[in-house]
Sequence to fold (485 residues):
Amino acid sequence: MQTKIILRMVGLLICLFSFSMLPPALVALIYQDGAGVVFIRSFFVSLMIAFIFWYPNRNCQQELRTRSGFLIVVLFWVVLGTIGSIPFMLSDSPHLSITDSFFESFSALTTTGATLIVGLDELPKAILFYRHLLQWFGGMGIIVLAVAILPLLGIGGMQLYRAETPGPVKDSKITPRIAETAKALWYIYLTLTVLCAFAYWLAGMSVFDAIGHSFSTVAIGGFSSHDASLGYFDSPLINITCAVFLLISSVNFSLHFIVFSRGKLNFRAYIHDAELRFFVIIQCALVAICFMVLVSRRFYDNYFDAFEQAFFQAVSLSTTAGFATESFANWPSFLPTMLLISSFIGGCAGSTGGGLKVIRVWLLMLQASRELKRLVHPRALFSISVGQKALPERVIDAVWGFFSAYIFVYIVCMLALLATDIDSVTAISATTACLNNLGPGLGEVATHYANINDQAKWVLILAMLFGRLEVFTLLVLFTPAFWRH
Fold:
């Protein structure tokens, strides 16, 4: 194992990440909320830790091997999640334990959005901004920034890109050079964030709330500055704006790049993309079902309110964002269960959403259809095609392997939660919410995670990591073959 280069790289990543402490310190200075000292201290502590990792290995220069790339990606999230918890540990408002600090940090960085802080409206603005910022970095910002900068530091980044990028096919690149790819994704991500913040501001949010919620929206994270989440604003326009940008952020960012980077707008690429078409069908079906059930049960006074809530909640939960206008657990029991299950599908591959990803679910359905055809015509040869292109069998095998591993991790985490004496509804929904990077669940975690025990929180932190790293990247570290020379 390339220990020295890995330690050097971790040191550099921590050094880069430490500068995320400075914008909240500036926010604290603007709003005079007294939290600036916490972030200045956290900045210097992070730099010190970075120096300890980097200095003894500063002269180590070599290209990363694939195995080291996987280890770096896991360390990337584990170490930065740990460093991200420092401001929460040092802060008096909120006053969090070590476990709670880790939980809040990992929930933000993995864009899960499962908070355990109650009383968000009274927190210092700097803390609120920091939570949003962690989600924004976790969505795509950190990995893109790292992949763009590390090659300039003499460290290859393609291994990181392959290990972290979602989707069944890992080796596809937008541009010939990894640095250019990273910058392209960064520009798209940044542009969407600016547009989302501006749209929120036009819809009636304050500048602070517009910026913070745009970070959480484009990252599909779900953190809010208020206990009532978006319900605090009581604005249909804000709800619709949020849902629209969640849908945009759930689309493969490579597809966004193709549409906007060829000198002229190529919107036909959206229409011709098979995964996006399937994603739109899923969203329309979920919204329609929610709307019909709410209308039939007369849950709202008029059709417009029923449609607005159906559209917002269905998109928010199925894309794994987890924003809320009210507790969806209060809806007729069929709907919360359906929407939690829909989070297993999540967003498109190459988006900031969680879950299995739309393309994998679609391929699983195509494979099931093929097996049914084989029962009727045993000697016939059937291929599975995406966009009129037949896929190699190894891709289908990889999707089935991923699905099996995902369900295995889900069952293990759920059983571990039940072993901590949590009730079955809470255990099942919390595992679903954290593994799919969704956030809100049912039972004790319908609104926040403050009431569950510390053992359960550590299990859920692990589930968040498995979900964000798409299971295999983390699971491969537990295989003996990975550590053999």
Summary: Residues 393-419 form the longest helix (27 residues). Residues 145-167 have pLDDT under 50 and may be disordered. DSSP finds 22 helices and two strands in the chain. The radius of gyration is 22 Å.
